[in-house]
From TrEMBL:
<keyword id="KW-0472">Membrane</keyword>
<keyword id="KW-0812">Transmembrane</keyword>
<keyword id="KW-1133">Transmembrane helix</keyword>
<dbReference type="GO" id="GO:0000270">
    <property type="term" value="P:peptidoglycan metabolic process"/>
</dbReference>
<protein>
    <submittedName>
        <fullName>Putative D-alanyl-D-alaninecarboxypeptidase/D-alanyl-D-alanine-endopeptidase</fullName>
    </submittedName>
</protein>
<keyword id="KW-0378">Hydrolase</keyword>
<keyword id="KW-0121">Carboxypeptidase</keyword>
<dbReference type="GO" id="GO:0006508">
    <property type="term" value="P:proteolysis"/>
</dbReference>
<dbReference type="Pfam" id="PF02113">
    <property type="entry name" value="Peptidase_S13"/>
</dbReference>
<dbReference type="InterPro" id="IPR000667">
    <property type="entry name" value="Peptidase_S13"/>
</dbReference>
<dbReference type="InterPro" id="IPR012338">
    <property type="entry name" value="Beta-lactam/transpept-like"/>
</dbReference>
<comment type="similarity">
    <text>Belongs to the peptidase S13 family.</text>
</comment>
<feature type="transmembrane region" description="Helical">
    <location>
        <begin position="12"/>
        <end position="34"/>
    </location>
</feature>
<keyword id="KW-0645">Protease</keyword>
<dbReference type="GO" id="GO:0004185">
    <property type="term" value="F:serine-type carboxypeptidase activity"/>
</dbReference>
Length: 500
């Protein structure tokens, strides 16, 4: 205590540490005052969006998490299981990157067995040994569907082989022969998104069919198909009509056969239209097309195209390698997510089973994904998985599971491959026509999902302040079309872009 001269007052010294503590407390109070309204605004804004755009009668689950700030932002039914449709592909592709690595390659090998005479006669067979590669198509060869088997045929010819006394054999043994899941929609098995899964596949296990009207009213439509092969039998009952109102035709492949029926009417002024129809028995498809290509190069084949039988599986010592073609997992993952290609997802799923569990089956692949999910911190009683693509409605995951996966992959060493595989808003893939306007264009990288009654959108948002937010918006029990569900998802994404 110190007396002040000329007064009876006493001056007290206040310690500096006490003043600093008061200032710090004041700042903390201000921060809490400033931050609370912001969090309340985010919550209230999303609730308002739901109030305005949530489709009547639907069940919605949402999880949003700021990766930049490491905190949850908004949740709605976050731990309830939802049918996720093609959002299942996020788990399939992420598991593949974690367990197989971005450098994993598929290797398809061409062998011969028997002896080759000096005059070019192979007294034996040609074997195509599959690796589960989904990339044997024209997708990476300027649309030339038969580019890869043509390369194989040219290599065989350069090897001096002119006659093959035996067979062209498809070795699909890396996978089992459960081509489709019982849970897939039985009335849609002709559609490209229900393509069968095989250890040896070709052209996404589909045939490309182009339909165009006849020049003569009432005449049958013109049909072209690629590859040009005897493997399919197309029965054309589609007629040309001058009435636009009657324009309606459909495709149907008879189950367990390769008889494809086209019926209905095609309008005389419509442009040519392409469809992709699935085939039955993929390895035999590959062997048949390859045999036909060899024959087109004047290589005589005395045997037939066929699939390897069980008694031939342990004769590797008799095989002589001719060549190997490779493709990358990176390519496969990009097609899976950008294009939402179910066939690719299922091929990757069985690849996981074959490589990690030594069993190329749906169930073995699903076991690997389950192992990964357990690493994310979830138990098997919290979810259901039934395939790799999401075509099955038995796949049920929670919004929090999806954002946990997205957070994990954002920090993973393969993050670049994973993120580049996702559709970009207003730019490419299945988001090309959504969120096209600025400032939303290119700020959302996300996987779409659709099966009847379900719409899903999960991925990443980069805000205007460069904050990264992982999100999942799942809408189930939709009655009718999905446009309202998509409008809800887009509205939430737009808000997240500008929320800070």
């Amino acid at each position: 205590m110190k007396l002040i001269p000329g007064t009876n007052q006493t001056r007290y010294k206040i310690p500096y540490f006490f003043i600093i503590a008061l200032i710090f407390s004041y700042i903390v109070c201000l921060e809490s005052i400033w931050s609370a309204p912001k969090e309340k605004t985010l919550r209230d804004e999303i609730n308002a969006i739901l109030q305005k755009y949530k489709p009547k009668g639907t069940h919605v689950g949402i999880s949003t998490f700021s990766i930049s700030k490491n905190k949850s932002l908004y949740k709605l039914n976050p731990n309830e299981p939802f049918v996720v449709a093609s959002n299942m592909k996020l788990f399939t592709t992420a598991t593949a990157l974690v367990y197989l690595g971005a450098g994993f390659e598929y290797k398809t090998k061409i062998f011969y067995r028997g002896n080759i005479s000096t005059d070019g006669k192979l007294d034996g067979d040609i074997i195509i040994k599959g690796s589960g590669d989904p990339n044997i198509s024209g997708r990476f060869y300027e649309g030339k569907i038969s580019a890869i088997p043509t390369y194989w045929a040219d290599a065989i010819k350069k090897h001096g082989i002119k006659v093959i006394t035996g067979d062209i054999i498809a070795d699909d043994s890396i996978f089992d022969r459960e081509y489709i899941r019982d849970s897939w929609p039985k009335d849609q098995l002709s559609e490209w998104y229900c393509a069968p899964v095989s250890g040896l596949s070709f052209n996404d296990n589909c045939i490309d069919i182009v339909v165009r009207p006849s020049k003569k009213p009432g005449g049958l439509a013109y049909i072209q198909f690629k590859p040009e092969t005897s493997y399919v039998n197309i029965i054309n009952k589609c007629k040309t009509t001058t009435f636009k109102s009657k324009h309606s035709y459909s495709f149907h492949r008879k189950p367990l056969t390769n008889q494809i029926y086209i019926k209905g009417n095609i309008w005389s002024k419509t442009k040519p239209h392409k469809e992709w129809i699935t085939i039955h028995n993929p390895p035999l498809y590959m062997a048949t097309v390859f045999k036909e290509i060899l024959e087109s190069k004047d290589i005589r084949i005395m045997g037939k195209a066929r699939v390897i039988n069980e008694s031939e599986l342990n004769i590797n010592s008799q095989l002589h390698k001719l060549l190997v073609t490779t493709s990358s997992l990176r390519q496969a993952i990009k097609v899976t997510n950008k294009r939402s290609q179910g066939f690719y997802a299922e091929q990757i799923l069985k690849t996981l089973g074959a490589t990690i569990k030594n069993e190329g089956t749906f169930s073995a692949g699903l076991d690997v994904i389950s192992n990964f999910i357990s690493k994310l911190g979830f138990s098997e009683d919290q979810y259901q998985i039934d395939d790799g693509s999401g075509l099955s409605k038995k796949n049920k995951l929670t919004p929090v599971m999806i954002t946990r996966l997205l957070r994990y992959m954002y920090r993973h060493k393969c993050a670049g491959v994973f993120l580049k595989s996702l559709p970009i808003s207003g730019t490419d893939g299945t988001l090309k026509k959504r969120l096209k306007k600025e400032p939303y264009k290119s700020r959302i990288k996300a996987k779409t999902g659709y099966v009847r009654g379900v719409s899903a959108l999960s991925g990443y948002v980069k805000t205007l302040n460069e904050e990264i937010i992982a999100f999942s918006i799942l809408v189930n029990e939709i009655k009718g079309g999905t446009w309202q569900a998509k409008r809800l998802q887009d509205a939430i994404c737009r808000f997240l872009v500008t929320c800070n």
